[in-house]
Model the fold of this input.
Amino acid sequence: MTESSDEILDRTGGRYVEPGGEFTRDQRYIATRITADGRTGWPVEPGRYRLAVSRACPWANRLIIVRRLLGLEDAISMAVAGPTHDKRSWTFDLDPGGRDPVLGIERLADAYFKRFPGYERGITVPAIVDVPTGQVVTNDYAQMSLDLSTEWAAYHREGAPDLYPERLRAEIDEVNAAVFADVNNGVYRCGFAGSQQAYEKAYHRLFDRLDRLSERLAGQRYLVGDTITEADVRLFTTLVRFDPVYHGHFKCNRQKLTEMPVLWAYARDLFQTPGFGDTVDFDHIKRHYYEVHRDINPTGVVPLGPELSNWLTPHGREALGGRPFGDGTPPHPRSNPSTPPTPHCPSAECEKGPLLYRRR
Done:
């Protein structure tokens, strides 16, 4: 499991970088599961739970994508925190009055303390909160996304893809483990390295894995099988942040994503697939990393670049075959007024695509 920016900030007393050493994660999470049979005491129940996220966070972005692909929007509501936070946790400053309208709280920390008074670990997103009691249930995001595919299957939309097919689970798990260790976590190991040696070790490990992923994807459209799976979701949320944040801010600068032809085409293919790009908010992403990580970026200045309209250019990956949703169908166009608009439809009422540009 992973440790997000707020957790690291809490654990280190305001620092992200420990001078002289490698970045390591505290992977202790609230492992409670919501299950179809209710064996944990938290049964699957539509309308009972609220998913707390930030669009800035790559781990939360995975849950947003999976929820949308599976059509669980009506079964699990979503609370969206703002892109920045302080040491005390994520806040719902995007909502009127700075308070989540369903949970009635200003800070996600309140849901954690409601269940665990004096909770000492990080207040992380994504998290699932039990609405009737206001208590956090889990922040074990890797298991959360798998459970959305398996435990919540009775409430998937008609035509929902199988993101975790049983016959491919061993391979998906293997790919996910390597991608997490070297890529998802690898960019943080570069950015939060406390020594030259630690940084160089992480840097080479990251790009060695990206090279191997490029080789794998040169001849197949998706990471495992011929449809989108959990593995693609987990890689995508790092790739989509690579040029706006990780290349410069985290010093992952051997190449930009746009200079890695296979991965760039693969990422654009997913970005243009309903359920992926329409969950991405580049403004929130950049503001989070550049404004919150003050020991890396002391001024808090947020860069204006890079150019983002190229995410909508043709990718040519259809030639490799594959069917994004298998025997299923794409999710319906979004209707939530908080959904980011497309660059071609500047009105906030247009809810069919990704947010590429936003005036602050």
User: Anything to note?
Assistant: The chain has two domains: 5-155, 170-320. The domain at 5-155 is CATH 3.40.30.10 (Glutaredoxin). The chain has a mean pLDDT of 90. The radius of gyration is 19 Å.
